[in-house]
Amino acid sequence: MAIFLVSAHWETAVPSISGNDNSETIYDFAGFSDDIYTLEYPAPSGKVVASAIAQKVGFIQDHQRGLDHGAWTPLFAMYPDVDIPVMTLSVSPSKGCEFAFKLGEQLGCLRKEGVLIIASGGLVHNLSMIDWANVYAPEASWASSVMSAIDAQVKTRVLDTVLKPFEMKYAEKAFTSLEHYLPFLIALGALEGDEGKLFCDVWRYRTLSMHSYQFG
Asked: 10-30, pLDDT tens digit by residue?
């Protein structure tokens, strides 16, 4: 088994896949307590699998890239034993939503080869309207509306609006940038017809969606 994780916190002009011998833990954030910066996630190298994927799909392979917090924070909770090879995939916002979805379609075959695809991002991710004083603040009405629209399309597999997020009502608030939304589209593309199950519908700070789906 290996983990192929798409991270919203690694942006490149063209899709790139990590493939180094050691997965350095990257602390790409600031302002937190000192103990967070002592955490490490030294995952086994996914270099061999990454190289095969890079050749198959045509990715650029980055032999220096470690695990940013979009990767190691969920992995810490999901696989605390740190015993599964991990490779990460960047997102390319300049190439748009349709490109991300089609990229996912190319990756769907990996699931049949024992590779777990994880998309790490955020469906509604507006940092400018966060209620920093209240982590458990009720979600904004516009944010809830956008999330409901996305969930309805995932359930019906009619993805025309999901693939054109800027046409959604309240898009200007929900999608201030694309990098956190694109991992979701890559995951949708990789489904090969499988249904999605929403297993987490939590909000934080009023405008951050923690919603998570499981497919297959």
From this structure: 999 999 999 888 789 999 998
What's domain 1-91's superfamily in CATH? LigB-like (3.40.830.10)
Pick the CATH number of 122-215 from 3.10.290.10, 3.30.200.20, 3.40.830.10, 3.30.70.20: 3.40.830.10
Domain boundaries, the chain: 1-91, 122-215
Full-model pTM: 0.94
- Please give the full DSSP string across the chain, using - where no structure is assigned: -EEEEEEEEEE-SS-EEE--SS-PBP----SS-GGGGG----PPB-HHHHHHHHHHHTPEEESS--B-HHHHHHHHHH-TT--S-EEEEEE-GGGHHHHHHHHHHHHGGGGGGTEEEEEES-SSB-GGG--TT-TTPPPPHHHHHHHHHHHHHHHHT--TTTT-GGGSTTHHHH-S-STTTHHHHHHHHT-TTPPEEEEE--EETTTEE--EEEE-
Cα–Cα dist 216/213, whole Å = 10
Residue pLDDT, tens place only, 34-81: 999 999 999 998 888 888 888 888 888 999 999 999 999 999 999 999
